[in-house]
Amino acid sequence: MIHVYVFIAAMWGLILAGGGIAVLVLRPLEVTGFGPYDAIAGSVLKAAAALAMVAVWVAVLAKVKGMVFRRQMRWDSDVPG
Questions:
Q1: Which domain covers residue 28, as residue numbers?
Q2: Which of 34, 37, 38, 53 is the most buried (most CB within 10 A)?
Q3: What is the pLDDT of residues 48-77, one digit of tens each?
Q4: Is 12 a member of any domain?
Q5: DSSP-H helix ranges across 1-81
Q6: Which of 47-53's residues contact partners 24+ apart within 8 Å by CB, and which partners?
Q7: Which residues lie below 8 Å from residue 40, measured CB to CB, with a gap of 6+?
Q8: Is there a contact between 28 and 74 (Cβ–Cβ < 8 Å)?
Q9: What's residue 79's pLDDT?
Q10: How many domains does the chain have?
C-alpha cells in the first residue's frame, strides 16, 4: 500500500516542480526581433517549453509507476495462495 503513496508523492512533486519552473523560468522569457510578432513568438516558445515539460513529466511518472508497482507485484507474488 505504501507504493501507491510513493507514486502519488512523486506525481505531486512533479506538479509543484513544473509550476515553479513555469512561474520562475518561463513567465519572464521575452522574445525580441520579430517586430509586431514578438508576443506571438514568445507565446509559441513558452507553449513549446510547457509541452516539452509535460512530455518529460509523463515519461518520469511512467518510469516511477513501473518501478513502484513492479516491486509491489513481485512482493505480492511471493505470498502463497
A1: 2-75
A2: 53
A3: 999 999 999 899 888 888 887 776 666 555
A4: yes
A5: 2-21, 38-77
A6: 50/22, 50/26, 53/18, 53/21, 53/22
A7: 34
A8: no
A9: 55
A10: 1
